[in-house]
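Following up on my earlier thread - several people asked me to post the actual chain instead of describing it. Fair enough. Here it is, all 117 residues.
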Amino acid sequence: MQGIHLPNPTITLYMSEIKIQLRKNKKTGGNATITVEDELTLDNLQEFRDKVMEVAETVQAMNFYLLNLNAIDIAAIQFLVAFHKHYAAEGKLIDFHYELTDDAKSLLAKSGFNLTN
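Reply from S.P.:
Thanks for posting it. Predicted structure:
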């Protein structure tokens, strides 16, 4: 992982074809870090959505790390955009950090997703 530092401690949940790591900041108890690797597509989006929504209800800030994604589709992008808008409107801090292929960056840019790291 180039240039991205992930905090500790770690709780790792394994889903069908995607690994999600949830990290809660022990000092504040109100932060979570979710790391997504490999793919985020319609095939695993429902399970991902359920886990993320559950965590979102218990914290005030979330950091998403999208790393080494071999596949991401428009359904996943639409969910991330809607998730961000919904929880930002509630005053929660939602940040995205990513390492993407050029194809994935292009898809995100065409979808209107903000590509600033």
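Residues 18-111 form a domain with the Transcription Regulator spoIIAA fold (CATH 3.30.750.24). That should answer part of your original question.
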